[in-house]
Amino acid sequence: PLDRALQMAQGCLQHSQQTVSDYTAMMVKREQVGGALSEHQFLAIKVRNRKLDAAGQITQPMSVYLNFLRPSSVKGREVIYVENQNEGNVVAHEGGFKGRFLPTVTIPPTGMLAMRGQRYPITEIGLENLIVKLIERGGRVRSMPGVECEFRTGAKVKDRDCTVIAVTVPNRLPGAEFHKAQVFLDNEYNLPIRYIAWDWPKRAGGSLEVIEEYTYMAIKLNVGLQASDFDPYNKAYNFHS
After folding, report:
1. To 10 degrees, the CA torsion angle through 34, 40, 46, 48?
2. Ranges of the chain whose pLDDT falls below 70
3. 112-117-120 Cα angle (round to 5)
4. What percent of the chain stands above pLDDT 70?
5. CB atoms within 10 A of CB 46
6. How far is CA 226 from the centre of its chain?
7. Is the dihedral angle over the CA atoms 41, 44, 49, 50 positive or is it negative?
8. For residue 46, what are the CA distances in angstroms to 84, 129, 185?
9. What are the residues facing 183 on neighbouring strands?
10. How far apart are alpha carbons 91 and 218 in whole angstroms?
11. Where is 98: in which H helix or E strand?
């Protein structure tokens, strides 16, 4: 049942690799971390996708800038990651009251500080990484018994027209990471702009709990982001103000 969905995801990945150099967006996310579901977090993001030459050498490293806007507990936090720079570390600083006293730090992306309150490291953020994850997860469950996949047209994410791929995995089996999941594919961009996954109910007939939810809005593709957009000394940022 998932073969058509996996083919669509492979097409999205090829499309992104061939045509999307960079983008800006508003990302809204919430995640289960340590068994608790976080509040919705709103982030202004800038991303440059990794690009390779014919020999497989990196010509454009994956680069990410995050500016946390809401809730107040994280407002003002900024994070930068550039592949193969800063010895593989992220550069980050807190916002708000804490940011007035705590210094900018350089820390491992998978370390305790960088992962605090996060389900995944910054190295796995972005639309292209989301596609890769969807392909991996779909591949693991495609042959499991009872898996269902539905396609729904006419959906919207804000003002974007989307096609929804809804997947149900009835049984909690090794390799299955969700009970139900929905992927919203932007019909114009040919990219997934929303993903939400639910856990199996804790008891028969019980409600489903969100595992993770990511929505990308106000996306602007190929805006020509430069190295300065991922430089903590950029005067528009507050890493060293």
Report:
1. 50
2. 97, 99-100
3. 75
4. 99
5. 19
6. 21
7. negative
8. 18, 14, 20
9. 165, 195
10. 25
11. helix 96-99
Tokens for 199? 């856990």
Q: The tokens of 77 are what?
A: 């936090």
Q: Which of 99, 110, 47 is nearest to 75 (CA)?
A: 99
Torsions phi, psi for 142 (to 5 deg) = -60, -30
**pLDDT at residue 185, as a whole number:** 97
- The string of pLDDT tens digits covering residues 19-55 is 999 999 999 999 999 989 999 999 999 999 999 999 9
Residue 72 identity (one-letter amino acid): S
132-159: pLDDT as tens digits = 999 999 999 999 999 999 999 999 999 9
Q: Which two tokens stand for residue 101?
A: 């006293």
Say if residues 212 and 206 touch (Cβ distance below 8 Å).
Answer: no
Q: What are the structure tokens assigned to 111, written together? A: 């370390």
- Total length of the chain: 241
Residue at token pair 């693991």? 140
SS3 of residue 44 by DSSP:
strand
Distance between CA atoms of residues 51 and 57, nearest Å: 8
